[in-house]
């Protein structure tokens, strides 16, 4: 072996594998309960999500998603009740309309499509929740780390 050359132990796991951080905004009544059911049922899914419980998916402000991405999340998952099953009658219909607008906004700011994901998971679908998290984690992992969505141009201004 040449001096300065590193030797790789093939028996050791690769510690340089990218593990994404995903902010997950979950509806209290359905998706959060589905995540809880997955945990109680010991259904395995990646530990890449950071759960944020919200009263309803329809109440998620698009700025929450942008703020999560600006603060270092590699991806975002928004999940709520199935359309027609909302605890607040029509909140998930509002969410569905917002999601269409949010997707076009994110495309406009230059964010890859698979960084932000939307899904419908009921309280009885713990297995489905685990599959959604696995899918989102795979898609975000394939994109790599979030390189940031905002560039600040001060226009050459000085602090004087």
Give an account of the 3D structure:
This protein has a domain of about 100 residues. About 35% of the residues lie in helices and about 15% in strands. Strand 1, helix 1 and strand 2 form a beta-alpha-beta unit. The protein starts with about 20 loop residues before the first strand and ends in a 17-residue tail after the last helix. About 40% of the residues are buried. The N terminus is likely disordered.
Largest sheet: 4 strands, parallel
User: Number of helical runs?
Assistant: 4
Strand content: 5-15%
The helix/strand series, from N terminus to C terminus, equals: EHEHEHEH
The side-by-side strand order for the widest beta sheet comes to 2-1-3-4
Nearest-integer average pLDDT: 86
Distance between the termini: 56 Å
Low-confidence stretches: 1-8
Find the count of extended strands (DSSP E, 2+ residues): 4
């Amino acid at each position: 072996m040449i001096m300065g050359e590193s030797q790789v132990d093939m028996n050791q796991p690769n510690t340089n594998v990218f593990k994404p951080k995903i902010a997950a905004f979950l509806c209290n009544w359905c998706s959060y309960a589905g995540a809880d059911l997955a945990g109680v049922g010991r259904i395995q899914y990646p530990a890449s999500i950071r759960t944020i419980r919200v009263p309803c998916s329809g109440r998620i402000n698009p700025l929450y998603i942008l703020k999560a991405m600006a603060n270092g999340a590699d991806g975002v998952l928004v999940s709520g009740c199935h359309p027609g099953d909302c605890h607040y009658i029509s909140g998930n219909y509002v969410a569905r309309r917002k999601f269409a607008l949010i997707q076009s906004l994110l495309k406009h700011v230059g964010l890859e499509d698979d960084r932000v994901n939307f899904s419908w998971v009921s309280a009885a679908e713990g297995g489905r929740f685990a599959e959604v998290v696995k899918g989102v984690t795979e898609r975000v992992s394939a994109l790599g780390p979030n390189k940031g969505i905002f560039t600040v141009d001060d226009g050459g201004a000085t602090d004087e």
